[in-house]
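# step 3/5: fold
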Amino acid sequence: MRFHFKTSYDTDIDLFPDWWKRGLYLALLVFAVVLPWLIDDFFLGEATNVLIWSVAGLGLMLLTGQTGQVSLGHSAFMALGCYACVLMINAGVPFVLAFLLAGVITGLIGALVAVPALRLHGVYLAIATLALAILADDIIVLLARWTGGVNGMYAPPITILGYEINRWANPAAWYWLALAVVVMVTAAYRNILRSPLGRSFAAVRDSEISAQAMGVDVARTKTIAFGLSCAMTGLGGALMGLFAEVFNNETFNFLISIQLVMMIVVGGLGFIHGAFLGAVVVAFLPQLLSIITGSIGGGIAIPGLEAAVFGGILILFILFEPMGLYGRWLKMRTWLELFPFARKDMFRRQKSYLKTERLR
């Protein structure tokens, strides 16, 4: 078992608790950078897809995992970020500026939507945001003059400092672009958590009544959380549309929102690592199902199989491992560190709500 000897209060908010974790994540970053030389183009494309899902998952994780607000409408904000970015690029705005502005625009609109929506709680908020996701599909069709409607749009070429990034001609460049965005969003996420705003998020998540008693403006905190969450998700949507190269209203349907929720629950709700582990599941599970059905069923497609498997996995994790994959790893690590003194009851689930909030 390792112990951390802290000599200042700054140690509590350091990005890395010790030199071991710092070296571990540095090694992981180096491995991610050199990955294009270790795998072929197919798996590199899948790795890029994992990174894109991770960006979108981090956005929803900030809202649901850190602030406790359930949203089933983040597919709408992914679509908004995608169309905003593409329309600005088509208007002549440089890619980097258009990409960042797409995140800002999505975050501002998300904050405006949050003002009336966050008056709701629990399942009612989930239903309201789900209605927003379904409505977004119709809005894209109605605005066909700018969005292309059901015919969709073609993603414009991406150029950074005169260097064109093409998925098919240079997949490694696309991978590094997605990796750079992931590092940027993860660093922003981590710094938000260790700020006073991040402490407010945790207070609102654990108990709104207690947060109010401590002087936290609950409505303002929820609105900021929703705006930041939508901004991150909008960046993920922009990457997803550009990576797909062709997209329409069906690309960002409400099933994407369900997959995002499943991703953060399976990965580990409330953990940054959980967004990445869940992204691996969401990105690779369809490929695994395709391989299995191809070898067993002779390539015959089974309608609804993917949705059924995703739903089954979500139910199993909610029932047997609500802390997700990363929570399971934490339990295993703790058991190994305390062996032979670890006991099964150490991980017994306990109620964490207040009596005054049971029916909210």
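# step 4/5: annotate
The radius of gyration is 21 Å.
# step 5/5: archive (pending)
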